[in-house]
């Protein structure tokens, strides 16, 4: 079976007139929906398919870190273990919501709303959006299910795809997977410390390098009532030098100007008043408590008074975790407080704080570990009659926790041993006519080449003793 067997080049999936037709779904009762066998006409000629722009596949043998399934499994395992230790419960929410939910939460002038949301209208005429971030859905669920009536705070985590129609960059995709946490119902600054330390420890455990948390406080109502007019007046005097997005935000949220990527706008902001000069006593005390808490738990941080984040709902604490391993696009995860969001979405006046971190960004910033350890046992079958006994023994060993595989490609004995090497198998079990006649098997140590003859009839217990399990 040499050569490419006439298959198309990698990364193309092909359907053509010579392929068997696909089958259209049909309900068992003859209606639409469900599985069925009604054929869909095959496309005429050769048709090539690629994944949509801004997406990627995770697949066996993936080359980049975010394409490798074993690294995804590690991220999920590490995240679940950390969330268990911090006493966070999981939330699983729809990937689409009413578009108005994101408009009300993120802000009408935010990039998410004005440029990045995937919008569609369903058959009932409702305007929906693929979720661009996780916080609004969690808050909506908190309100809808009356979780504000439970013991507070409610601590939850989520993991799943988010969607933003933005220019693709390294580690940033139109469909990306985000891990996030939300803590609702407590204004305690030590909750901020816990959330930030959880983000930092998640990254640290995954091997993210050279990370520092950048911290700011955007103030409470008293702070903003004094600061925002001063900032707006300053920006009005320099309006001609601001980029169009920043000019559009002057009335509704001039603080978002600090989030501008325009060099001209940033040059204006070098002379702008900073919020630290206007913090109320409560906001200043909150920031001080967060700083002391981060020092106590050993999280490296720096205060950055120009940090505002890109969403309108943030109040008080905001933070970004940045890695020196990522160059200019150095943010791995970020978050902040949103003490007015629950009330703005129809719930009671409850504070909240959370973070989101992209798995792709984590893997890009981390030292990718070596390939996962190989198989425990690979079965080499030298006769057709040996395949069923091998499969039965493999099933028994798998039930005991061993990783096993067999040949399903009709390889020769030499080819099967080569496959055992490819899978980094510790041992090979050889069963052929000779072994079957003696009701035996050969166990070969793939490192040393040493072989032992074991009783096939005894099955898994004999193998487990021999491999040291």
Automatic annotation (TrEMBL):
Compartments it resides in: Cytoplasm
Region forming the signal peptide: none
Single GO term (MF): ATP binding
Keyword ATP-binding among record annotations: yes
The name this protein goes by in its record: Histidine--tRNA ligase
InterPro entries per record: aa-tRNA-synth_II, aa-tRNA-synth_II/BPL/LPL, Anticodon-bd, Anticodon-bd_dom_sf, His-tRNA-ligase, HisRS-like_core, HisRS/HisZ, HisRS_anticodon
Keyword terms, alphabetized: Aminoacyl-tRNA synthetase, ATP-binding, Cytoplasm, Ligase, Nucleotide-binding, Protein biosynthesis
EC nos: 6.1.1.21
Region (Disordered) residue spans: 1-63
Reaction it catalyzes: tRNA(His) + L-histidine + ATP = L-histidyl-tRNA(His) + AMP + diphosphate + H(+)
GO term, biological process aspect, one: histidyl-tRNA aminoacylation
Binding-site residues for L-histidine, renumbered to this chain: 133-135, 164, 178, 182, 309, 313-314
A Pfam family of this chain: HGTP_anticodon
Gene3D superfamilies on file: Anticodon-binding domain, Bira Bifunctional Protein, Domain 2
Description of how the protein assembles with itself and partners: Homodimer.
Domain Aminoacyl-transfer RNA synthetases class-II family profile: 71-384
Recorded family membership: Belongs to the class-II aminoacyl-tRNA synthetase family.
UniProt source species: Rubrobacter marinus
């Amino acid at each position: 079976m040499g050569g490419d067997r006439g298959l198309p080049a990698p990364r193309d999936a092909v359907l053509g007139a010579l392929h068997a037709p696909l089958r259209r779904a049909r309900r068992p009762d003859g209606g639409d929906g469900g599985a069925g066998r009604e054929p869909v006409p095959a496309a005429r000629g050769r048709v090539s398919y690629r994944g949509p722009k801004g997406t990627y596949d995770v697949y066996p043998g993936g080359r980049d870190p975010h394409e490798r399934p074993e690294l995804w499994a590690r991220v999920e395992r590490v995240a679940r273990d950390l969330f268990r230790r911090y006493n966070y419960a999981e939330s699983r929410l729809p990937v689409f919501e009413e578009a108005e939910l994101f408009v009300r939460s993120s802000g009408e002038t935010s990039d998410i709303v004005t440029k990045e949301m995937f919008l569609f209208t369903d058959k009932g005429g409702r305007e929906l959006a693929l979720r661009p971030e996780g916080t609004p859905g969690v808050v909506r669920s908190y309100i809808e299910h009356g979780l504000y009536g439970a013991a507070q705070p409610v601590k939850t985590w989520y993991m799943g795809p988010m969607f933003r129609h933005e220019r693709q960059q390294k580690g940033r995709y139109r469909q990306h997977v985000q891990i996030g946490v939300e803590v609702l119902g407590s204004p305690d600054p030590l909750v901020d410390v816990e959330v930030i330390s959880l983000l930092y420890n998640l990254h640290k455990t995954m091997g993210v390098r050279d990370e520092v948390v950048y911290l700011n406080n955007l103030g409470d109502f008293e702070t903003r009532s004094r600061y925002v007019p001063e900032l707006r007046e300053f920006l009005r005097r320099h309006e001609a030098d601001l980029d169009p997005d920043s000019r559009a935000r002057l009335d509704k949220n001039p603080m978002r100007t600090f989030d501008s990527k325009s060099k001209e706008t940033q040059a204006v902001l070098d002379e702008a008043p900073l919020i630290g000069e206007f913090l109320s006593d409560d906001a200043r005390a909150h920031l001080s408590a967060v700083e002391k808490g981060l020092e106590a738990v050993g999280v490296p941080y720096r205060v950055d008074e120009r940090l505002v984040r890109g969403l309108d709902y943030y109040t008080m604490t905001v933070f970004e975790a940045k890695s020196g391993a990522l160059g200019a696009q150095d943010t791995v995860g970020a978050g902040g407080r949103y003490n007015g969001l629950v009330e703005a979405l129809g719930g009671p006046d409850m504070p909240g704080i959370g973070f989101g971190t992209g798995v792709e960004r984590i893997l890009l910033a981390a030292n990718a570990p070596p390939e996962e350890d190989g198989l425990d046992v690979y079965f080499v079958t030298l006769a057709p009659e040996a395949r069923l006994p091998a499969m039965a023994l493999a099933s028994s060993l798998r039930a005991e926790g061993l990783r096993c595989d067999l040949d399903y490609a009709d390889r020769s004995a030499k080819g099967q041993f080569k496959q055992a090497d490819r899978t980094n198998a510790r041992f090979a079990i050889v069963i052929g006519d000779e072994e079957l006649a003696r009701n035996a098997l050969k166990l070969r140590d793939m490192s040393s080449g040493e072989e032992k003859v074991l009783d096939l009839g005894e099955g898994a217990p004999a193998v487990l003793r021999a491999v040291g399990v």
